[in-house]
Design brief:
Largest sheet of chain B: 5 strands, parallel
Radius of gyration of chain B: 19 Å
Order of helices and strands of chain B: EHEHEHEHEHEEEEEHEEEEEH
CATH architecture of the largest domain in chain B: 3-Layer(aba) Sandwich
Shape of chain B: elongated
Shape of chain A: elongated
Number of domains of chain B: 2
Oligomer: heterodimer
Number of helices of chain A: 10
Largest sheet of chain A: 5 strands, mixed
Number of strands of chain A: 7
Number of strands of chain B: 15
Helix content of chain A: 55-70%
Helix content of chain B: 25-40%
Distance between the termini of chain B: 41 Å
Order of helices and strands of chain A: HHHHHHEHEEHEEHHEE
CATH superfamily of the largest domain in chain B: Response regulator
Strand content of chain A: 5-15%
CATH class of the largest domain in chain B: Alpha Beta
């Protein structure tokens, strides 16, 4: 970023220097040609510069059009080489004829016009060359980005389930043989979560038993994280009446993740900081969460809000007119109330 | 009765884990473990173990291929693998169970109990299950089992001679018990259908004890008990 800025300042300086030098050099010619009346002096310079800028811009425009619609098309094998050369020759012929027209076809100036045409041709060449370089570079950067993304995806797919679960199994076995039962059970829990996230979450619908099993493990992992802060600050209840019903996987997980993310376990005082009450009764899911937060903690952990947005979208498309979601924020506590009718 | 088992896995820690688990069980003895599936195959043909714990993804010879080779021997085997994609193939090969790595002891116990039942059936002995009651292993003949009640993480096994408790979930026990005689009739109750003396709208009676019957299960229970069409 900083490098880029110094680069720009440097370029502008050089540009001003060169421009100043040329203005200085041309001063004599300019004044020589248009110095007729004192009052007219500044205006004349303006007109002069303006007309030259116009010509310069026009040349650049033609050069760009030539690059974009002739050269690139040729490069993409849209034109054959012969038609490309023909088009370029016709273009130069047109430029020459234009110059001839501006000088009213005077025989004497024909030679000059030819020279100018040649210079313009060279300019076109240079323009095309530079533009092509930039074009190729940009394309390369894009390709590189795509390649990196593809490589990342490949890496992810290689690092996928089997290696991961075998490695976890090794770690689990080690923990067991060392007699670290708690570590071992945490590895199991984590593996279960990962297997669910990797395999079950791809399905459209799963049984409520699987989903609740996942959520209980997920909550347990969070509980383990905050274990040292005392269990009195957490109040979690998951109740199911045992009646089988299907649910779209990972529907409520983002909401539970949020409560843990924003709950403020840091401050003292013995009151309950986080409450989760999840019930599935007679095919109806009810989730009530409440977490106390401190503004400071929320600002430090602020997300993009996409999690909740995504939940809303999914609810709308999967359970249209069969759900109610209410989110309340009274400045000290964050409350979520969700009801879904899971029965068709 | 003691089941003779072997374990085949190309990873040593995975074998160590099975060894550790089997040592906790009174009804299985792990005769030998192999990291080379071909050696394991040879051993199986020579020594005819009852049960084989088999990894799937191994170099040289895949567990699924090995299972096909030994199929004519009629051995019981349990797949242990990190790959859930092979589950269907596993059941097609008539695997007793399919353990996804890493698996905990409770899951292993469920699979082993299932194996015990099948092997006992093959040998013509009475069908029974081993339950861990605190530190002791207790054998329960299924004809003696009246009903099972779940409370939290615990299961209470009510038999004709008494009650014992074990750390297990209701879905674990459902997968062990044969479903022709046992059925879930409530979120926390599984009953032995042959023991039901009385069927009412919201409860059943087994040897004088009443057990709640949930609406969701009533229709199926009536069908099965009353042999309704």
């Amino acid at each position: 970023m900083k490098e880029k800025r110094t680069h720009i300042i440097f370029s502008v300086l050089i540009f001003l220097l060169v421009l100043g030098y040329w203005l200085f050099r041309f001063q004599e010619i300019v004044t020589f040609e248009i110095l007729e009346t004192e009052e007219n002096y500044l205006g004349s310079i303006a007109v002069y510069l303006l007309s030259w800028s116009f010509v310069f811009l026009l040349i650049n425009l033609v050069a760009w059009l030539n690059f974009r619609y002739v050269f690139l098309k040729w490069k993409e094998s849209f034109f054959s080489s012969i038609s490309f050369i023909a088009i370029e020759l016709i273009l130069l012929a047109l430029v020459f004829e234009l110059l001839q027209w501006t000088t009213q076809g005077e025989e004497e100036l024909m030679k000059d016009n030819l020279t100018v045409t040649l210079i313009i041709a060279l300019y076109f060449l240079a323009f095309t060359w530079v533009s092509d370089l930039i074009h190729v570079k940009r394309k390369q950067a894009k390709l590189l980005q795509q390649k990196e993304r593809a490589e990342l995806m490949l890496l992810q797919s290689q690092l996928n389930p089997h290696f991961l679960f075998n490695a976890l199994n090794t770690t689990y076995s080690t923990a067991m043989s060392e007699g670290s039962e708690q570590t071992a059970s945490q590895i199991l829990q984590l593996s279960g979560l990962m297997r669910f996230a990797l395999e079950k979450s791809k399905l459209d619908m799963i049984s409520i038993e699987d989903e609740l099993g996942f959520l209980e493990k997920y909550i347990q992992v969070h509980k383990d994280r905050y274990r040292k802060k005392g269990k009195d600050v957490l109040n979690v209840q998951v109740v199911w009446d045992g009646i089988e019903v299907q649910i779209s996987p990972m529907m409520v997980q983002p909401l539970i993740e949020n409560t843990f993310k924003f709950a403020d376990f840091g401050s003292e005082s013995g009151k309950v900081k986080l409450e989760i009450d999840l019930k599935v009764e007679d095919g109806e899911l009810t989730l009530v969460t409440q977490n106390y937060f401190s503004i400071k903690h929320v600002n430090e952990n602020k997300g993009t809000g996409q999690g909740i947005q995504l939940v809303k979208q999914r609810l709308k498309s999967i359970y249209p007119n069969r759900h109610a979601l209410k989110i309340e924020d009274d400045g000290a506590a964050f409350k979520v109330f969700l009801k879904i009718n899971l029965k068709e | 009765m003691l089941i003779n088992a072997v374990a085949i896995d190309d990873e040593v820690p995975a074998l160590e884990l099975i060894q550790m688990y089997v040592e906790k069980l009174p009804f299985i003895h792990l005769d030998k473990s192999f990291t080379d599936p071909k050696e394991g195959l040879q051993y199986i043909f020579e020594n005819q173990p009852d049960l084989i714990f088999l990894d799937i993804n191994m170099p040289g010879l895949k567990g699924t291929e090995l299972a096909k080779i030994i199929q004519p021997l009629g051995k019981s085997f349990i797949f242990t693998t990190a790959y859930s994609e092979f589950a269907l193939q596993g059941y097609e090969l008539q695997a007793l169970d399919y353990l996804l790595k890493p698996f905990g002891f409770e899951r292993f116990l469920t699979a082993s109990n299932r194996a015990f039942q099948e092997i006992v059936k093959k040998k013509g002995e009475e069908n029974s299950v081993f339950f861990k009651d605190s530190y002791d292993w207790v054998r329960v003949n299924l004809s003696e089992l009246k009903y099972v009640k779940s409370e939290g993480n615990l299961l209470f096994i009510h038999t004709k001679s008494g009650t014992l408790s074990t750390r297990m979930t209701i879905s674990d026990i459902l997968s062990i018990l044969p479903n022709d005689t046992f059925m879930r009739i409530h979120k926390s109750y599984v009953v032995n259908l042959t023991g039901i003396d009385k069927l009412e709208k919201h409860q059943v009676t087994i040897a004088g004890e009443t057990i709640p019957l949930a609406n969701a299960y009533r229709e199926i229970l009536e069908k099965r008990l009353l042999k309704k069409p």
